[in-house]
Amino acid sequence: MRGAIRVKIDIIVVYIQRYERGHEVDFVPPITGIHLAAITPPGHSVRVIHQQVEPVPLDTDADLIALSFFSGFAPEAYRLAAEFRRRGKFVVAGGPHATFSPDEVLRHCDSVVVGEAESAWPRLLGDAEAGGLRPRYEGGPSPMCGLPTPRYDLLPKRFFVTRVVQATRGCPFTCSFCTVPTLNPGFRMRPVEEVLRDVRYDDFAFWWQRKVVWFWDDNLTIRREYVRELLARMRPLKRWWLTQASMDIAKDAPLLDLMRESGCIGIFFGIESFGEDSLADARKRQNRVAEYAERVAALHGRGICVMSGFIAGFDGDTPEAIRAMARQLYEIGVDVPFLSILTPYRGTALHRKFEEEGRLLAGRGWEFYNGYNVAFAPARMSPDELLAAHRALWLEAFSVRYSLKRVFRAMFRLRFGAFLMCAMMNLFYCLKALRGNAPACFDGLRRYEEFRDLPAERAEPPVALSAIRSRRPDRISR
User: Residue 36 pLDDT > 50, yes or no?
Assistant: First the structure.
């Protein structure tokens, strides 16, 4: 490839539907695809496809296919890679699974990006312009300054919230089940003015999309001085915003007041469990079960919705304890629960522990690593009992009874924007439960067995993109 020939790029955020009938619409897109599009150097043509809400166009005229995916979606990424390579496309992969399993990924794709993309992606495209690509690109931690506004214009219309913004990256905690400390090492902050530039972006179709900001941060409030400056400068913008944070913010009354004044309508807490032993297993020592209700109430006192993640399957859990969570969640005041199954992702302390103990279940492909299926042997029940208990918990937590109770309570506790979000999310999941559309078990869906044990293949040598357009299907490595 010579000169400044344009490269047509399709960035695909891969997804396997985790419900029986999937999503027709969804709340918020991941920032990955539109951020990667934004850091793509000028001179290239790029579009973003979110498989979560739209089909992947296999017969595309793109030269380069970029797949981003988590471990649970790896089999679908490999299926797509095979389809695109048969069509003569060059396929590159990145994201969490590519970072922790690069050699596996290279059996299916032409090139892999390991780590963060800010430095690796421009180098990859520079090599493409120069006439060749290497099998592997390493991306180090980004300094987080000078990043462009995400390409919101490339989002499909099927997301309710479209302004996703990242202010910080990383998390200082080391939860046993979390990949963030390894995937995004350290804790880094963007310049406040650059964050505000993205918050001010306003070219959206609907009023609520212009109103709401979803901070795509793992723990926005870690550095108090930074977040205070950001929120103080957000007050005149009159936005509604949501993010993730640690429960310790509930003890910082001045910060909670500033959150309310700057438009906060929702905070996600990773509460994880009601068992002290389980919290110790999770390395969530900062959480105190006896303080849950008090800390939730502190946010309710400012009209802020509390979303919380709970995980079933820790060694201290029993089927009875898991099913009891629906009642406990309501009693401590959680407005929107997010319920998942413990999953030993590569790159985590949990995966290393289960591997050493021989507790990873043989014969279960990456599709079981999606947060809604069982990939390991629990300590106090069978895998099938854990799956059944989680399904029962999910269906009860989003039953008409509990969903309406949460919405009714929110009418008297939450500010208007927080109430709208609480009502919308609860009714969304309640309708799924009423339709019998709980998270799907892969015993009842396609299990991607044909992509599980493909023989290892040597990565192809550097290939000129100019040659890709003429690559014949019978020459593609399978």
Answer: yes
d(CA 56, CA 79): 12
Bridge partners of 12, per DSSP, are 49, 67
Higher pLDDT, 20 or 305: 305
Q: Which two tokens stand for residue 80?
A: 């797509």
pLDDT in tens, 252-298: 999 999 999 999 999 999 888 887 777 777 777 666 788 899 999 99
pLDDT digits (tens, 9 = 90+) for 412-430: 999 999 999 999 999 989 9
Q: What is the pTM of this model?
A: 0.91
Q: 340 pairs with which residues across the strands?
A: 311
Domains annotated for the chain, with CATH where assigned, are 8-143 (3.40.50.280), 160-434 (3.80.30.20)
